[in-house]
Amino acid sequence: MKGTIVATWLNTCRKIYDNQVVSSAMNSVGWKEDRIFSPIENVSDNDVKKIMKNIADSKHISVNELWRSIGRDNILTFHKDFPAFFQHENLYSFFRSMFDVHVEMVKKFKGVQPPIIDIRPISSRKAILKYISKRCMYDYCLGLIDGSKDYFKENLKIDTISNKDGELILELTFEKDIFYKKVYKFNKILSLGFMKNIASKVGVCTFLISSILSTVLFGFDNILKGCSISLVSSLISSFIVFMLLRPAKVIEDEIKKINDNNYTEDGEIVTGDIFENLYSLLKKHRKVIRADFVGFKGVTDEMSTFVRNINVISDSMMRTSEEISGVVEQVANGAVNQAENTQSAATVLNGNIESLKEIVDTENKNKQQLEEAIEKIDNSYANVDNSSKNIIESLMKFKEVRNDGVELEGKAHSINDIVLIVSQISQQTNLLALNASIEAARAGEAGKGFSVVAEEVRELAEQTQRAVKQINSNLGEFVDSIKMLVNKIESQYFVLEGETNNLQEVRNISLDATKSIQTVSKSMIKTIDDLSRESDTIAQIYNNIESLSAIAEENSASSEEVSANVSNYTNEIKNLIGNISEFKKLAEEFKDKLSKYNI
């Protein structure tokens, strides 16, 4: 099957049913739903049958019903594509022209084998139609007949005589006369079944009439004479008729020339009768035909020139469209790559942004912890500073205690000196008491009282001496204890002084470290804030890239659409070039046909 008729069938199915059913049926045999069929393309019959079976099953109808509905609707499609084929007065004349259409289609499309439709009248309103098709598409033919009678708005009775061996024979009954046959009995009788010459017919007729009249007038006695007269009359009449009919031979020759497409010769006959009028009518007809064919040949020359110019333009358009198609395809590929790269970059950037957000969140938490740590460091430094101040204050008090201990040791030594003086006084008192006792002993009774006092003084001096020794001993221990305490206090003082110096140094270092940490922390906080702002900026950039990605996808889709449109445009130009070629072939065929007419 040729691609044109298959495309027509599928478009009809899309119109009668729906696109989804037809697209699904096309996909079932591996065809794309937007497939474009070439007029000279050969399509597999089996694929077409499978598609029609699929459509019929989808719509729950038989394949025969589907083909009949397609045929009925195809008449409208054929009328749209080939309106000249439908320029007939009635349905019968349309059917009668189908054989000529078949011949033209075979000439136009090499290898095509359309069905043969032949119709022969059998009465004034009846005809036998033969539909010959090796594919046995009888229901499609019946659908075409239904569509044809609907188009010409005629009632038609259809009776099937036979449908076998690829041949469908129908008896069609029309509502109007389609054929007439006029029989001239007198002419037929005079021919006697074998004579075609009018002069002979007139001679025979004259002979018979003359013979009858002579017999009636002269009787049977003079029959020989009558027959002679009749024979002479018939010969004379035949000769006269022959001479009168000589222009008919010229007219016959003119008609043969017209049938042979010869319109070159021009002439005139003078008869003074109907033959002169007939020749004049033929001459007028030939003149009209000659003028028409001169115009036709001029039109064909213009068509040939037009086709050549269109071919030049179409070739230029084809080259330009191919160049544009190549550029658009590159742009489309670039747009697709850009869209993919932009989407990939957006995806990567989105992942980086998410990671950056996590880092920012972590750094914000670290920022809070750092601020808390700085606050603790500040508090710690304050505590260290306070402790340092307290230790320094304690050190000062320690120093005072040490000084007090030294002073106390000095006072203890002073007391020791006093005790030593008391001890010396006690010793002297004891010596004085001893001397007093001696003097009292010398005085005797008079010195007893003084002796008692001296004894008491001596005892007191001894007690004092013992007390002084005890005090001196205790005081020595006390002084030693104070000295040891002072030494310990002095030792701890020096230790504390060293530690205080170390603590002061630590405080200073802590101060420097705190300041450095504060500087670093401020820098880190500023960096975190900057990082947060940059994160927001990058997020905004991501949104912009998302927008760019969407725009890139739109551009990609637009580029692909433009590429598809350019491809369609290129295909349309190819189709146009193909149609121009077909038009050129038609023009050449028309020119060849016109060349047969000699004007």
Briefly characterize the structure.
The protein is mainly alpha-helical. It has helices at 3-16, 19-28, 45-58, 63-81, 91-96, 98-108, 138-152, 185-190, 198-218, 223-244, 246-259, 274-443, 448-595, and strands spanning 116-121, 126-132, 156-164, 167-174. A 4-stranded antiparallel β-sheet has the order 1-2-4-3.
Which structural traits does this protein have?
single chain; Helix Hairpins; mainly alpha; rod-shaped; 599 residues
Write the layout of secondary structure elements.
Blueprint: H1 3-16, H2 19-28, H3 45-58, H4 63-81, H5 91-96, H6 98-108, E1 116-121, E2 126-132, H7 138-152, E3 156-164, E4 167-174, H8 185-190, H9 198-218, H10 223-244, H11 246-259, H12 274-443, H13 448-595
Antiparallel strand pairs: 1-2, 2-4, 3-4
Protein name: Chemotaxis protein
Keywords: Coiled coil, Membrane, Transducer, Transmembrane, Transmembrane helix
Domain Methyl-accepting transducer: 313-570
Secondary-structure class: mainly alpha
The CATH homologous superfamily of the domain at 321-586 is named Methyl-accepting chemotaxis protein
Spatial gap, N to C terminus? 41 Å
CATH class label of the domain at 321-586? Mainly Alpha
* CATH T-level fold name of the domain at 321-586: Helix Hairpins
- Helix % is over 70%
Count of DSSP E strands? 4
Gyration radius, rounded: 72 Å
Strand order of the largest sheet: 1-2-4-3
What does this structure look like?
The protein is mainly alpha-helical and 599 residues long. Among the domains are: 89-181, H-NOX domain (Alpha-Beta Complex), CATH 3.90.1520; 321-586, Methyl-accepting chemotaxis protein (Helix Hairpins, Orthogonal Bundle), CATH 1.10.287.950. 78% of the residues lie in helices and 5% in strands. It is built from 13 helices and four strands. It has a four-stranded antiparallel beta sheet with strand order 1-2-4-3. A hairpin with a 4-residue loop joins strand 1 and strand 2. The chain is rod-shaped, with a radius of gyration of 72 Å. Residues 313-570 form the Methyl-accepting transducer domain. One of its GO terms (cellular component) is membrane. It comes from Clostridium botulinum.
